[in-house]
Amino acid sequence: MGERIVYLDHAATTAVRREVLEAMLPYFADNYGNPSSIYSLGREAKKAIEDSREKAAAAIGANAREIYFTGSGSEADNWAIKAIADANREKGKHIITSAIEHHAVLNSCHYLENIGYKVTYLPVDGNGLVSVNDVKASIRKDTTLITVMYANNEIGTIQPIAEIGQVAREKGIIFHTDAVQAIGNIPIDVEKTNIDALSMSGHKFYGPKGTGALFVRKGIKIPSFIHGGGQERGRRASTENVPGIVGFGIAIEKASLEVDSYNAKLLRLRDRTIDQVLSNIPFTRLNGDRTKRLPGNVNISFDFIEGESLLLMLDMKNIAASSGSACTSGSLDPSHVLLSIGLPHETAHGSLRLTFGRENTDADVDYLMEVLPGLVARLREMSPLYENKVSKLN
Fold first, then answer.
1. DSSP assignment of 141-182
2. What is the C-alpha to C-alpha distance for residues 193 and 286, in angstroms, rounded to an integer?
3. Tens digits of per-residue pLDDT, 141-170?
4. What is the pLDDT of residue 1?
5. How far apart (Å, rounded) are the C-alpha atoms in residues 79 and 214?
6. Coil, strand or helix: which one is 95?
């Protein structure tokens, strides 16, 4: 494979597409006007932002006036949860979410708990799925917000979003979903899925880092999160990141147009990898639902090894992978997602997340399978637990 990096961590971030970068470049040095200015340079920048807003809306079946640009998916999550909770505090202070949300959602909920809100954290089954019946059973008279992620960033499980949204709609409760991992990977229609608010992040679908957006359905009251000027129709102050927003727009448009062909490729690579790992390496298990999962997500636990050691050894072989969320990679604690689906601590520590993208090929899977079994075997040779297990089997 030479020095080429086999990049299998697209859930963490993606490379900016060449056409996205080229579209962004003029707005750094040529079309550099402030969108709030009334002269031509400013008007050109403003038009570029509105063009991207149209693209973002079209990608999810929304209206352009329902799209607000942010600095990240985490900001969009924070804004949606905290602001919607605040706007509806007179109606009630109860929120429903799941135990396997991204920390941008969980920590926003923890913040609200500290100032007097009540939060129900729904459990998930062994595949990471939220039960719609559990959602129904958790609703109270003072429930004002349900927030459940569209697809999990670690195990790839896709939630029954339309059904949860329908429950929320029937009860008059606002429904928000963190769709950061879903946008660009699966088709999304906010009308068909009964979504009231949706968060997205540009760098997950080959756009630039530092860009995000929040969809808020018309009629949903949501106060400003950043105070200052009147940008984003008075709801998010600060001079807009025009190059980033332009890149976001091109990236989401491309991702939306190519989603079917992209899915077909990723599904093939994903399923081939899962089948080969489970059949060629003993004492392994797939984490997440086998079919209700993102097309490029593979998350497998290996008994008797430590995941971080495996990642370092893969890196020495020029394979970039992950053991879970990139946001918590510095933590020594096992994944809250893997613990929530019932894995014991020692098994959760031995997880490997492989997420495929545009540039991956069958040759990458071939190389992975050439390398991975030997690395796992080498790590297990150092484990007394593995030695005991093998001796008992013999």
1. TTEEEEE--SB-TTT-BBP-HHHHHHHHHHHT-EEEEE-TTT
2. 28
3. 999 999 999 999 999 999 999 999 999 999
4. 44
5. 8
6. strand
| Amino acid at position 108, single letter | S
Q: Give pLDDT, residue 23.
A: 98
CA distances from 233 to 50, 53, 111, 170, 303 (A): 12, 12, 27, 30, 52
| Whether the predicted pLDDT of 205 surpasses 80 | yes
Catalytic option among 5, 264, 278, 327? 327
Per the annotation, the verdict on 327 as an active-site residue is yes
As to burial, measured by CB atoms within 10 angstroms (0-12 exposed, 13-18 middle, 19+ buried), residue 312 is exposed
Across 93-110, average pLDDT: 98
Distance of CA 373 to the CA centre of its chain: 29
Alpha helices in 325-361 (DSSP H): 336-340, 345-348
How does 261-281 read in b/e, with b if 16+ C-beta sit within 10 Å?
Answer: ebbebbbebbeebbebbeeeb
Distance from the Cα of residue 339 to its chain's centroid: 19
User: Which helix (H) or strand (E) is 286 found in, with range?
Assistant: strand 284-286
